[in-house]
Design a protein that fits this description.
The complex is a heterodimer of chains A (370) and B (332). Chain A is 65% helix and 8% strand. Chain A is of the alpha/beta class and 370 residues long. Chain A is built from 16 helices and five strands. A five-stranded mixed β-sheet of chain A has the order 2-1-3-4-5, sandwiched between helices. In chain A, helix 6 links the parallel strand 4 and strand 5. Chain A folds into two domains: 119 residues, abc type-2 transporter like fold, CATH 3.40.1710.10; 195 residues, no CATH class. Chain B has 332 residues and is of the alpha/beta class. Chain B folds into two domains: 224 residues, P-loop containing nucleotide triphosphate hydrolases (Rossmann fold, 3-Layer(aba) Sandwich); 67 residues, 2-Layer Sandwich (Alpha-Beta Plaits). The two termini of chain B are 37 Å apart. The chains are: A alpha/beta (370), B alpha/beta (332). At the A-B interface, helix 2, helix 9 and helix 10 of A face helix 2 of B.
Chain lengths: 370, 332
């Protein structure tokens, strides 16, 4: 049958491309490990800042109960501060996920039974972490309620006032920064080094390599054109996502300018990295494989879908050098919080360093001759 | 007069032990069309890639307009135009855009660039289609555009690597006319590799034959033909064959051999052009009419076969990536 001949041809060619076979077997397993560890893990070490203005027996008890959560299941990491404003700034700028403020007359209110209340100020831009923290604090208070106490005192009436520091965000809206970072990644895949690989594949590169263009001209020209397209794509995705989810940019002009800068910087860094990885590849098949692989290992553990606090140690360590983590964090803060430069300072420093290092290596490793 | 190209003991070795170019030495004079002939895998493309600074030589040196290819590649690149073996114009751009972008690569000022593009588009005959995408062009049109692009910066030397490969005879002739026209209009040296003998014969002032990485002959086409010895052949079919005429012919000094078959003769002579009138006179004297006549002069192909032999080149086994297989297309 002729169909067998067609089948034979396909099978023969498939076996002559071991990388395809290897990838189709290995990648699903790697994805399983990465994606499996990027979702639904137990949240750990969520930073919460506690301000005890009461300094009474009950406020100390609340803190002890929270410390038990810190020492036992290590779900939270407590930061103690005395100044309420400072504490709220830590949350607003994304350094802590919540601030627990125990007011000055908390213990007295319990004793007098006059509506004792503590305030939990949440960074609700991270929906999952803020829900997690609400539960942890509520549980601690529940312990307080079930403890043996003199009859006249009624800690069972302690109320938590939950304060969401930012505009409410649905889960689908919370994915928008991730979608933008993915658009940046996709942009870097189909521009920049990919164009060079296609040129090599088609034999076109020979013509411009014999002109006076320097290595720097080629690397920078290719990368900057990629940045242009990628930035444009990212903004189209941003506008599309805003229309789909109904969110709007919270900040003013500065925040918007920082958003543009962050997107450009992220695109520049990723394009330079792609240049190093794919600068010497000469087949689009390689780009497809590497690109797909990098997308999974960078995107899912970036905090775009699920908080980094839920990752196992090794994935957390990787998150420290994953540029998408910093891009997602900065873009999230800029879109949802209208953050200023203080909140995203660390992200920008990392992205700048990453970009410079990658760009230097890309230019250095690019081969101008055959 | 200085040399346009000076090659000294150039070697390119590919690991482990293949010498693609092996101790090559020659010079190309300014303003000449210099041809490099050789069978597949003889080292033509490797040599041209070294001269165009696309590949680093293992040993030896070469100068283009006095600039060393190893020490001053930038000056070399500024002075050469290259038309590669594979089609390298961008299909997603128009002819005009292709030329304009390359003009910018060479930092030609805008006004001069536009003038130059207009001129080149005109001489390569693409005026009507200048603003069409190259993807819509035929092979011949695209090749003409490549020649125009190679000339955008008024190079001192134009390299053409198999410029007419894959083209039909009409397009091939258009390219030949174009090259001759450009050469007469600008003081341009042309370095061309080909394995079309006719092309080399028509275009080149001098030809080097390269085989197994070595130059084995270098001279003008006429001298190369003369130097290999051998004879022109005059083939005739006659109305009748008489013993006397055969005897007469055999006694003639310039006739080196005669092979007869029925009423046809293959007469081997030193110079067919000189022998022809004498032979026709002889047949007339014997009252024999000539029914068919053909002349086979020594061709460059004879020269080529003389120097490179008849064996087909197997070539070195090409490297195929273990990981991605034979995905990268070979050049034609």
């Amino acid at each position: 049958m002729r169909a067998f001949a067609v089948m034979e041809r396909d099978l023969r060619r498939f076996t002559r491309n071991p990388i395809l076979m290897l990838a189709s077997v290995l990648l699903p397993m790697i994805y399983l490990v990465i994606i499996g560890n990027s979702f639904q893990g137990q949240l750990k070490n969520l930073p919460i800042v506690v301000v005890d203005q009461d300094n009474g027996p009950y406020s100390r008890r609340v803190i002890e109960l929270l410390q038990a959560m810190q020492e036992g299941p290590r779900m939270i990491k407590i930061v103690r501060l005395n100044d309420q404003k400072e504490a709220l700034d830590l949350v607003k700028n994304g350094f802590c996920k919540a601030a627990l403020i125990i007011p000055p007359d908390f213990s007295e209110d319990i004793v007098k039974d006059t509506n004792p209340e503590i305030g939990l100020f949440l960074d609700n831009t991270d929906v999952i972490s803020s829900n997690g923290l609400s539960n942890i604090v509520s549980q601690s208070i529940l312990f307080l309620k079930s403890e043996y106490l003199p009859i006249r005192q009624s800690p069972s009436k302690v109320q938590i006032r939950f304060v969401e520091l930012f505009k409410k965000i649905d889960y689908d809206a919370s994915l928008v920064p991730g979608a933008i970072v993915m658009a940046i990644f996709m942009g870097t895949m189909i521009t920049g080094a990919f164009n060079l690989v296609m040129d090599k594949f088609l034999g076109i590169h020979e013509s411009y390599l014999s002109t006076p263009l320097t290595k720097r001209d080629i690397v920078i020209g290719t990368i900057v054109s990629g940045v242009f397209i990628t930035t444009l794509m990212s903004f189209i995705v941003l506008i599309g996502s805003m229309l789909l989810t109904g969110i709007r940019l919270e900040g003013g002009f500065v925040s918007f300018a920082l958003l543009v800068f962050t997107i450009i910087l992220s695109a520049l860094g990723l394009l330079s990295m792609m240049f190093i990885i794919m600068g010497r590849a000469n087949h689009p098949r390689v780009v497809g494989l590497i690109g797909g692989f990098l997308n999974v290992i960078f995107f899912f553990p970036s905090g775009a879908v699920y908080p980094i606090e839920s990752f196992p140690g090794w994935l957390k360590a990787f998150a420290k050098v994953n540029p998408e983590v910093y891009a997602v964090h900065a873009i999230k803060a800029l879109i949802f919080k209208g953050a200023d430069i203080v909140a995203i300072k660390n992200d920008l420093i990392f992205l700048c360093l990453f970009t410079v290092i990658m760009l230097v290596i890309a230019t250095w490793t690019f081969k101008r001759t055959f | 007069m200085g040399y346009a190209v000076e090659v000294q003991n150039l070697i390119k070795k590919f690991p482990p032990s293949t010498f693609a170019v092996n101790d090559v030495r020659f010079a190309v004079e300014e303003g000449e069309i210099f041809g490099l002939l050789g069978p597949n895998g003889a080292g033509k493309t490797t040599l041209i890639r070294m001269l165009t600074c696309l590949m680093k030589p293992t040993q030896g040196s070469a100068k283009i307009k006095g600039y060393d290819i190893k020490r001053d590649p930038d000056s070399v690149r500024r002075n050469i135009g290259v038309v590669s073996q594979s089609m390298t114009t961008d299909m997603d751009l128009t002819a005009w855009e292709n030329l304009d972008i390359y003009g910018k690569y060479y930092e030609i000022p805008k006004r001069e660039r536009l003038e130059r593009i207009r001129y080149l588009i005109d001489i390569v005959g693409l005026k009507e289609r200048a603003h069409d995408l190259v993807a819509t062009y035929s092979g011949g049109m695209r090749r003409r555009l490549e020649v125009a692009r190679g000339l955008i910066h008024r190079p001192y030397l134009l390299f053409l690597d198999e410029p007419t490969i894959g083209l039909d005879p009409q397009s091939r002739r258009v390219i030949w006319d174009l090259l001759q026209k450009i050469r007469s209009e600008a003081k341009l040296t042309i370095f061309i590799t080909t394995h079309y003998m006719e092309e080399a014969d028509i275009l080149c002032d001098r030809i080097a034959i390269i085989d197994y990485g070595k130059i084995i002959a270098l001279d003008s086409p006429a001298n190369l033909k003369r130097n290999i010895g051998g004879y022109d052949i005059i083939e005739v079919s006659l109305s009748e064959l008489k013993v006397d005429i055969l005897a007469k012919l055999k006694s003639m000094e310039f006739i080196k051999n005669i092979v007869e078959k029925d009423l046809s003769l293959r007469i081997y002579v030193e110079n067919a052009a000189k022998a022809m009138p004498i032979l026709i006179d002889e047949f007339k004297k014997f009252n024999i009419s000539i029914l068919y006549l053909a002349i086979h002069e020594q061709s460059l192909e004879d020269v080529f076969i003389h120097y490179t032999g008849k064996s087909i080149r197997e070539g070195e086994p090409q490297k195929v990536s273990f990981l991605i297989g034979a995905g990268v297309p070979r050049r034609i």
